[in-house]
Amino acid sequence: MDEVRGGHGHHHPAHGAAHRRIEDAFLLSLTVVPPSDEMARTFGRYCIEIRYPNDLFVALTEALARHYTLQRALFSRVNYCGREFWSEHRVPGHIAFLKPQDGYAGQQEARMLWELPRPGRLRPQVLQVPDVASICRFYRI
Questions:
Q1: Are 28 and 114 in contact (CB under 8 A)?
Q2: CA–CA dist 118, 66 (Å, integer)
Q3: 3-state class (DSSP) for residue 85
Q4: How far apart are CA 9 and CA 3, in angstroms?
Q5: Neighbours of 25 (CB within 10 A)
Q6: Model pLDDT, residue 17
Q7: Which site in 55, 75, 82, 126 is 20 to 30 Å from 88, CA atoms measured?
Q8: Cβ pair 75, 53 in contact under 8 A
C-alpha cells in the first residue's frame, strides 16, 4: 500500500478557496478493467485478480484496525473530473477519489483509502492477511 501524507486543510474566506489534503492514510489503487498489453508494458506482466473487492476491503480494514485507529475507511471508483470546483458546484466525492483526466484514465481506477485521525502515526510494516488468498488469483498477463 502507498502511504499518503500532506499538510493541514486550509480555508481562505477572503479568497473564496478551500484546500483539502489528506493528513495520513493508506491508499491501495486498483484497476477495474481487465489487464491489457499496454498495462503490462507500464506495470509488468503479473496481475492479481480480486474476485470479491468488497471482501478484500473489509479484510484489509479489519487488519489495519488491529494496528491503527482509523478515522475513516472508503472504497470507491475514481472520478476523473479534476480537483478544482467553484462555489456553485457540488464536490462529487472525497478528494482521494477525484483525479484529473490523464493517460491512465482508461484503466478505470478504484481506490481503497484508510485515513488516520492524527498525522505522523504511520510506520512501515508488513500487513499479514492470509484470508484474502482465497479471493485473489495471481497470474501472468
A1: no
A2: 16
A3: coil
A4: 18
A5: 23
A6: 58
A7: 75
A8: yes
Residue 54 has pLDDT above 90, yes or no: yes
Contact 9, 82 (CB under 8 A): no
C-alpha to C-alpha distance for 92 and 90, rounded to whole angstroms: 6
Specify whether the CB–CB gap between 135 and 50 falls below 8 A: yes
Cα separations in angstroms, 40 against 33, 46, 108: 13, 7, 15
First to last CA, the chain: 22
- Assess whether pLDDT exceeds 90 at residue 55: yes
Average pLDDT over residues 26-45: 85
Helix (H, G, I), strand (E, B) or coil at 35: coil
Residues in CB range of 141: below 8 A, 6 or more apart? 35, 37, 39, 40, 45, 46, 47
Which residue reads 478484500 in cell numbers? 56
Distance CA(109)–CA(105), nearest Å, equals: 7
pLDDT digits (tens, 9 = 90+) for 92-116: 666 776 777 777 777 788 899 999 9
Judged against a pLDDT cut of 90, whether residue 20 lies above it is answered with no
> Which grid cell sits at 107?
484503466
Phi, psi of 61 (to 5 degrees): -65, -45
